[in-house]
Amino acid sequence: MTEAIKKLQEERTGLFADLYRGKIPKRVPIRGGLTTEAAIEYAGMDIKEVQWHSEKMIDVMRYAAERIPADVAPVRPHTLRNPYKYQLLGGKTIVMNAEGYAQHPEIHGLEPEQYPQFIEDPYKCMLETILPRLYDGLNQSPVQNALNLAKAYKMHNDQAAQGIAQAAQVNEEFGFATAPPGGFTEAPYDFMADFIRSFSGTSKDIRRHPRELLAACEAVTPIMINQGLGPVRTVDARCFLPLHMAPFLNMKQFEKFYWPTFKKTIEALTDAGMGVDLFVEQDWMRYLDFLRELPGRIVMRFEFGDPKQIKEKLGDRHIIAGLYPIGLLKTESKEKCIDKAKELLDICAPGGGFIFDLDKDILSMSSANIDNLIAVQEYVREHGAY
Fold first, then answer.
1. In this protein, which residues make up the domain named Uroporphyrinogen decarboxylase (URO-D) (predicted)?
2. Torsion over CA of 120, 123, 128 and 134, rounded to 10 degrees?
3. Which of 44, 126, 296, 380 has fewest C-beta within 10 Å?
């Protein structure tokens, strides 16, 4: 690493460090980027080929890094759903389609009559009942289960180590901001709605089995907290939570089923000293007052919402990100795309507490014009100074 690159990396890392500590940074940090699949397309490579030969991801990451202005690497390896482990385990939860994109079937591993078993011991129930139902490779003889799990575990660790090394190499070559290892977890209700009971399952249970669903959320909360705690306890180490189900609940349901265990999870993470990043999916405008109650300087990346109201409600307490609609990058001229970025800067940047980011990562080349993304983020880099 040259001295110039080292200085650039320190400056970029400092932008985020200042935000997390309530300081106004030198300029607005930029975090917009691509999913792994979109980045592979952007580099002119085959999605399936690279996912099955992930050593090629380093070239994909470099290609995007050379072209897209950002303060963190515009392609991050954690978006890659490695197909090896799912094939080894006979997984039903993540399925690759004909084009190479990971699909998430509506599937569940727990039947309603099994709630008592789950509530009594969620971890045991997941090991003995849910995982064998979701993964055919874990529904064999004990010996074969152990062998399949060992193979998949090694593959997962090998791929994770490779991805971490690739990310570190790209960060060093291009001077992107770095951070200590963080964590990942979910709000307990979201966890139940993923592969435990599914979206449709929890939507039925909230009416047909409300006591059991509520007890299950409470029972799984310690696991969600423990899962989110990373090896480093500092605000620079971020725990990421994607928030799924709240927009599909009415206020009464949210207050009873979603909020208490979600808040408890966030409080435990911040009490442990970690930072928290939320992807606030869909429209949370009616829940802004709840989000304001959460402790810590939380990064809240919004998919939809009124930037002015969000800034007024949360800007003095949390860090706002997202809100830039990727649809504009596909349909509008470069000038109109830049105008939208200027509008967001004017609303959200004053006083600090703002990261420029897209409302969601770009999934494919058909969903955005990357030249417009480059122009927008160049504009923010040049005009986002305080």
1. 177-382
2. 120
3. 44
